Amino acid sequence: MPRSVLVTGGNRGIGLSIARELAAAGDAVAVTYRSGEPPEGLFGVKCDVTSSEDVDVAFSKAEAEHGPVEIVVANAGVTRDTLLPLMKEDAFTDVIDTNLTGAYRVAKRATRGMLRMRRGRIVLVSSVVAMLGSAGQTNYAASKAGLIGFGRSLARELGSRGITVNIVAPGFVETDMTAALDADQQNAITRNIPLGRAATAADIARVVKFLVSDDAAYITGAVIPVDGGLGMGH
Ligand code: NDP
Asked: What are the Ketoreductase domain coordinates in residue numbering (predicted)?
């Protein structure tokens, strides 16, 4: 039986790569998309993670199609970068609402079925900036650091039920999110990456695939850097 998987923000970037990687390995994958069209060849459910109702409907649709969700990847995320003196309160609260409270909504809904099955895998997509900090990203870094405390607490709550919770901390990944940076900003970041290049979305997806595999059965509450060494030491 293929495993039922739900990936939020799975219509592009890292989320799409994770979805394609798991689907290619034989999983039954549902992806949420907030705007546009669902990606070809994957079961798409429309969902804005800032709405509990949307999240609930997305899970219900995925469950109706593929059975109880046993693997969840909370990947949906946004940036609204600016220095703190210029940051409007809604730029702070919106980023927290999507990146952190969104993951709370998704994980909470996911645990319902997982607790019943007494198995499950939850992966939260954080960021190297959770540990390093990042000027102009106080909102984003706070949301991504919050995911670590959230995920580790949840790992403690769910460990005895056969459910693992892990956090992936990508570094600089080539997606629409980073394409918004100008060439100087991109070069400055790449210079500090020991491996000397940005990650591809597939670099992240393959690590997520490992974390939800049988080989990672004894890993929970871990923060896995996938950053080419950028955050080394943190
Ligand atoms: P993209 O900007 O390419 O994609 C973001 C995805 O999140 C899209 O699918 C988007 O949907 C979805 N999304 C955003 N807001 C919401 C919402 N409110 N409800 C539902 N879905 C939403 O980003 P990446 O692929 O680069 O990033 C994916 C994750 O990885 C994010 O959490 C990001 O913070 C994290 N990350 C990225 C890094 C990078 O260098 N790119 C580095 C470290 C972490 P839609 O298409 O509808 O907008």
From this structure: 3-176
In the chain, the amino acid numbered 91 is: A
Ligand 1 pocket, 143 CB below 6 A? no
Interface predicted TM-score of the whole assembly (ipTM), two decimals: 0.99
**Cα separations (Å) of 176 from 56, 99, 163, 172?**
27, 17, 32, 12
Q: What is the pTM of this model?
A: 0.98
How far apart are the CA of 50 and the centre of ligand 1, in A?
Answer: 13
Which of 16, 18, 33, 34 has most ligand 1 atoms within 8 Å of its beta carbon, as the pocket-test mutant?
Answer: 34
Q: What is the pLDDT of residues 141-172, one digit of tens each?
A: 999 999 999 999 999 999 999 999 999 999 99
114 in ligand 1 pocket by Cβ < 6 Å?
A: no
CATH topology of domain 4-173+202-226: Rossmann fold (3.40.50)
pLDDT per residue over 194-224, tens digit each?
999 999 999 999 999 999 999 999 999 999 9
Cα 219 to Cα 44, 163, 175, 178, distances in angstroms: 29, 10, 28, 30
Structure tokens at 97: 């609402």
